[in-house]
Amino acid sequence: MKPVLRQLCFWLVATAPSSDFAWAKLNLRLVNIAFGTFVVLTSTTVSGPDKVMISSLATEGIRGVLLDIEGTTTPIAFVHEVLFSYARSEVRNFLTKHFGSAELLADLQQLREEHATDVKHGLHPPALVNIDVEVDVEVDVEVDVDGPRDAEIDSVAEYVSWLIDRDRKSTGLKSLQGKIWKEGYIDGTLKAELFADVAPALERWRHAGLKISIFSSGSSLAQKLLFAHTEAGDLTGFIDNYFDTTLGSKTDVASYRRIASALRLPAQDVLFISDVVPELDAAGDCGMQTLLCIRPGNPPQPFAERYQTIRDFDEIQNHSPDSGTKASSPLS
Ligand SMILES: [Mg+2]
Predict the structure, then answer these.
(1) pLDDT-derived band of residue 43, with 50, 70 and 90 as boundaries?
(2) Residue 212: helix, strand or coil by DSSP?
(3) Cβ-count burial of 99 within 10 angstroms (0-12 exposed, 13-18 middle, 19+ buried)?
(4) 110 CA to middle of ligand 1, Å?
(5) Fewer C-beta within 10 Å: the chain N or C terminus?
(6) How far away, in angstroms, is 71 Cα from ligand 1 center?
(7) Rounded distance from Cα 77 to ligand 1 centre (Å)
(8) Domains (ranges, CATH) in the chain?
């Protein structure tokens, strides 16, 4: 309606007799008054041309918001070009510094198991050196520990790079990356990038009494670090829970059942926002409400038309009730 009224306004001015400029001005004023009245009326009495306030979330019974990170709260480029590059360039230093520590043992064990699976599946990952095996063989023989240790570190670093190249959602990789990023965040080398509407939305939803949680393939440690070190400051005070893939895949419906159960909320009271359709499929199958988030830099999603979409979180309180297509939405 707005463009139509504006067009009418310009038409009246354009068609006014050129000799009678006062006539045109009068009509312009009248149309502006009518236009203003229309906006006020539609904004306050109906749902509004583009307005559904956050109370609509409450109307839909939503008590929790579950957010994906990459491509939803954070540019994909930040994850791939900044975080992954940092992990790749620092992994060798990190392993050297912490080799033999208890905190690395579990990650290395996990990586070895995943490596064995990759070999079994014929994926030809770079070979892993395991000095435990070599030392066992050399019982009672003096060995130069540094040589084998360096070989193992090099081989793990190469395998980690190989996994990063494939954007593998590997638990061992994610856990190790989280620890590497922690050092970068703490020494100030890394600063997390969020879309500008994210921090205000977290604050607004928190103020509205919603439970806010994250579900990301990054480890829960990496998630907390990211939200603790953003360009908008430490946002962890707004977030209640961090879920990672240790509870299940993001495309598995069982993961969302576990999350709803951990939140102590019925699934239908949770709104899941993600940029990936198969994740929304799984959450929707569990009964959660869903929104597809389309951000700059995100690849096109097959079957995106099945979901109501948003381009930023501001739309959640300003979204047109008739612009969506998917039934599983709090905004339609
Ligand atoms: Mg994502």
Answers:
(1) very low
(2) strand
(3) middle
(4) 24
(5) N
(6) 5
(7) 12
(8) 2-73+192-319 (3.40.50.1000), 77-186 (1.10.720.60)
- Specify which residues 52 forms β-bridges with: 318
Give 275 Cα–ligand 1 centroid separation in angstroms. 5
Which segments of 187-219 does DSSP mark as H helices, in order?
A: 198-207
Residue type, 301: Q
The pLDDT score that the predictor gives to residue 167 is: 87
Q: Which of 129, 99, 110, 209 is nearest to 168 (CA)?
A: 110
pTM as predicted: 0.71
State in Å: Cα 7 to ligand 1 middle: 40
- What three-state secondary structure class fits 286? coil
Measured in Å, residue 162 CA sits from the centre of ligand 1 at 21
Taking a C-beta distance cutoff of 8 angstroms, is the pair 288, 269 a contact? Answer: no
Residue 39 CA to ligand 1 center (angstroms) comes to 37
From the CA of 14, how far away is ligand 1's center (Å)? 49
Contacts of 15 (CB under 8 A, 6+ apart): none
Question: CA torsion sign, 308 to 205 to 273 to 260?
Answer: negative
Model confidence pLDDT, tens digit, residues 174-201: 899 999 999 999 999 999 999 999 999 9
Residue 236 has pLDDT above 90, yes or no: yes
What 3-state DSSP class applies to 271?
Answer: strand
CA of 58 to the centre of ligand 1 (A): 25
Query: What pLDDT band is residue 39 in, cutting at 50, 70 and 90?
Result: very low
